[in-house]
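hey so u asked for the seq, here:
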Amino acid sequence: MAVSQERLNTIKKMEELERAGKFDVDPWKNPPFEPLKPGQVDFLRKKISSKIKNKFCNFAVNKFIKKMEKTNQAILKDIKGLEKINNINGGAIVTSNHFNPFDCYPIIKMLQKSKMKKKLHIVLAEHNYTGGTGFYGKVFRNYNTIPLAQNPRVMIECVKAVEHFLSKKDLVLVYPEQALWENYKKPRPLKAGAFRFAVKSNVPVVACFVTMTDSAYVAQNGEPVQEYTLHVLDVIYPKPELSQKENIEYMKNRNELLMKQKYEEVYGKELTYLTKEEN
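ran it, structure tokens below
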């Protein structure tokens, strides 16, 4: 099966963005969407309708995962470092590389296999929440999701929701690379938002990194289905002797370094990026 032209175009766009150093830009045109308005999102799912939709969506997601695993369209080869998270008593921010529309899958499996009895919430982009269509659109709106927003008042609601869930000792998954680059194996520079959440709530960051290898199965785009290995790199705690600003920088830099080291260890090569000079 040949690789689709759409996928080839995406790969080319990712290479162009890498050369330009624009690691936080999506390599495709996102769907049109309506910006969120204050009060539009039931962040804490207090409404009965929100609770019902969330319950059914969680059931649908678990069923979807089992189907994808059964048909070899989702393959989690291994989880390494799982023992590192078993002693987390309170809430935590989870970070990971952003490489697939459903790359929360390894994190969901990680939580299921751990000894922790915590709920996972996922921070996602506004355009996915309001512009998503089909199955994924329903998941984006009704799963345990927390949408970001352009509107400052909605963003305040978002931040308060994150703080609320962390205070309940839940996990909040944030993709600090920001943009989604499908099947891109290299770690990308991280944004500070995830670490700002952690420092403000005085919780650790569970730094994760997913590595990929080609399987014998073929995806719909013609490429090999990727076998995932989820690496729990470390649990990074804020340092009491540092200021909030210093802690954000420290935790972000530590997370980036761990991702770089794991990439080089697993793939057996130095982490380098395309540059404009290579054209």
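Helices lie at 5-20, 48-70, 105-113, 126-131, 134-142, 152-167, 193-201, 244-267. Residues 41 and 154 are 8 Å apart (CA to CA).
lmk if thats what u needed
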